[in-house]
């Protein structure tokens, strides 16, 4: 990952659109959407993983624990919960 702690400047358009620098976009695996999180010091952008990617990450973690067969399937179902591709959007009004 291209995380060297060096601040980057991003342009904000008149339509309040932010351009993520290419190096960061590619190294963090951004797609067509980003999760936007309000923090105490500002706003943080995170790549949005698809439901399939989240499931694959969970499956990989369970396999690394040594699970297999029916035990793997059972734990996967218990931990994955309902899987949805939907994204919830919130509008934040910055003064």
Order of helices and strands: HEEHH
Distance N terminus to C terminus?
33 Å
| Overall average residue pLDDT | 83
Q: Which architecture of the largest domain does the CATH hierarchy give at level 2?
A: Ribbon
Query: Looking at the chains present, what oligomeric state does this protein adopt?
Result: single chain
Largest sheet: 2 strands, antiparallel
Please provide a brief summary of the model.
This protein has helices spanning 22-27, 51-64, 69-80, and strands spanning 34-38, 43-47. It is of the alpha+beta class and 95 residues long.
Characterization of the model:
The protein has two domains: 1-48, Pemi-like Protein 1, Chain: D, CATH 2.10.260; 51-80. The two termini are 33 Å apart. 34% of the residues lie in helices and 11% in strands. It is elongated and about 55 Å long. The chain has 95 residues and is of the alpha+beta class. It has a two-stranded antiparallel ribbon with strand order 1-2. The mean pLDDT is 83. The protein has three helices and two strands.
Keywords:
95 residues, alpha+beta, Pemi-like Protein 1, Chain: D, 2 strands
